[in-house]
Amino acid sequence: MSDLLRPLVAILADGHFHSGSELGAALGISRAGVWKYIAKVADQGLEVHSVRGKGYRLAERVSLLDPALIRRELDALTSDRLHHLEVLEITDSTNTHAMRALQDGALKPQTGGFAVYLAERQTSGKGRRGRQWVSQYGRHIAMTLVKQVDAGASGTDGMSLVVGLGVIRALHALGITQAGVKWPNDIVCDGKKTGGYSHGNHGRCDRFMPVADRHRHQYPV
Asked: In this structure, what CATH number is given to the domain that contains residue 51?
């Protein structure tokens, strides 16, 4: 992904019009370059309005993931245990990315701690029955949490239920009290699926709990 695409989306994220010259000055590129990157923004599935004399704006506001802000919002105990937090721009799957990091040795699980991978866009997420999940850039949350479980496979009994209840508690705390769990691994809101979760393992003790909670929708292909 281009180094300028995220800064451009960040400027347009407020939903207001920004002129080509304003964007060019902020990004250090020509107005022609701005037009090229606007096209790349549209390629990520974001609708961009272009109006002569006003400039460009996103059809809807977006909230990009900010690792520093995420850490500031965590309580002290959780922040201490979170030994690795990474936000990916575009990835095939946060779960697959985490698996590669473990296999390559880039990620080394720590006893009592956990790692989290998030993505602005996930292109090949996996759902139940082999379904593929495609997320729109800046609109959905794809997350994988990696934790070492010293008790082995027996220590993960009931993990799916615990993860689901944890997600629901977090949503309720945000005021989304209509959210609930639909067995075996769906998050529903007003009777419609808005997210999902699952868990797996790598070797004997590393567990993956990918969670994809969407404040819009995510589309099975």
From this structure: 1.10.10.10
Total tally of structural domains belonging to the chain:
2
Q: Supply φ then ψ for residue 158, to 5 degrees.
A: 80, 10
For 189, residues 6+ apart whose C-beta sits below 8 A from its C-beta are: 176, 178, 179, 180
Same domain for 25 and 91? no
Same-domain check for residues 52 and 78 = no
pLDDT in tens, 104-162: 999 988 888 999 999 998 888 766 666 666 677 888 888 899 988 776 666 667 777 88
Do 41 and 124 sit in the same domain of this protein? Answer: no
Give the count of alpha carbons within 13 A of 137, CB side only. Answer: 21
Tokens of 173: 């705390």
113 and 22 within one domain: no
Of the candidates 20, 36, 58, which is a domain's last residue? Answer: 58
64-110 pLDDT, tens digit per residue, is: 999 999 999 999 999 999 999 999 988 988 888 998 998 899 998 88
Identity (one letter) of the amino acid at 167?
V
Measured between alpha carbons, how far is 178 from 172 in angstroms, rounded to an integer? 8
Find, among 117, 116, 122, the residue nearest to 137 by Cα: 122
Handedness of CA 146, 151, 154, 159 (dihedral sign): negative
